[in-house]
Design a protein that fits this description.
The protein has 254 residues and is of the alpha/beta class. The chain has one domain: Nucleoside phosphorylase domain (Rossmann fold), CATH 3.40.50. Helices cover 28% and strands 32% of the residues. The chain is built from six helices and eleven strands. Strands 5-9-8-6-10 form a five-stranded mixed beta barrel, surrounded by four helices. The longest helix has 16 residues. It is globular. 42% of the residues are buried.
Length: 254
């Protein structure tokens, strides 16, 4: 039924005119994947020979390779998911079409409260849908949740390794330069601790396609009404590498 806001015109049809048609992999791939936003962590593992090429996804920005990682007699697919909900959701769709059905994402997020130090770990248990992609996969609602089983695996990994963390709600937005003071205060009032650009889309695609998805984040830049502070969020190599291996550990528990 037409709406004044087209984004609210959800269509539950299981098939679309264009369905995911990824390039076939160069070898059999695992059904579990870690989607890592840290390009330098992936490059380091490639340089060390830990990641073996298995194929690539394709977009107008070029090829996005995916790899296999062997750990504890298990195989995990590893790739960068792209930045922003539309690209990340498209890559997720193609990985699902290749047969992957269990996902753990690890990345960084803006922190909405100054009490949280940079590098602190967060496991997402809900995402406010302030982006567009999720409305094409699920009926309109304020929030969307990850897979309970993947969330539990992430918690178990962090607790076993004695890593302090919080289970939190995130604010997913498409508009990095429209995080206004008023919107930030509204999101904090409804319980959001962090802000990022993909989680709500990830969870919505996963629910629509019937796969499992969870996400681990670390606190990076500070987003408060008084202003923005980068806190050198993208230079915390130890935190980023550690988060990747925690995500891998959680993935092996699925």
């Amino acid at each position: 039924m037409p709406s004044n806001a087209p984004i609210l015109e959800f269509d539950p049809a299981p098939r679309a005119i264009l369905e995911p048609q990824p390039f076939p992999p160069t070898q059999p791939i695992p059904n579990r994947a870690v989607l890592c936003f840290f390009a330098e962590v992936l490059q380091h593992l490639i340089d060390e020979g830990r990641l073996q090429p298995a194929g690539a996804l394709k977009s107008e920005i070029g090829l996005s390779p995916y790899y296999t990682l062997e750990i504890n007699n298990q195989s995990i697919l590893v790739t960068h998911p792209g930045v922003g909900a539309p690209l990340a959701a498209g890559f997720l769709e193609e990985l699902i079409a290749l047969g992957v059905n269990q996902f753990v994402a690890c990345g960084g997020a803006g922190v909405l409260n100054a009490r949280t130090h940079a590098g602190h770990a967060f496991v997402i248990n809900s995402a406010v849908r302030d982006e567009g992609v999720s409305y094409h996969y699920l009926p309109a609602a304020r929030e969307v949740q990850p897979s309970p089983r993947v969330t539990a695996a992430l918690q178990a990994s962090l607790e076993e390794h004695k890593v302090p963390y919080e289970l939190v709600k995130t604010w997913t937005t498409d508009a990095i330069y429209r995080e206004t003071a008023t919107k930030r205060d509204q999101r904090v009032a409804e319980g959001c601790e962090v802000v990022e650009m993909e989680a709500a889309a990830f969870f919505a695609v996963a629910q629509f396609r019937g796969v499992e998805f969870g996400q681990l984040l670390y606190g990076g830049d500070l987003v408060v009404a008084e202003g923005w502070d980068s806190r050198a969020w993208d230079q915390r190599q130890d935190s980023r590498s550690a988060l990747f291996w925690l995500a891998v550990d959680a993935c092996t528990r699925l």
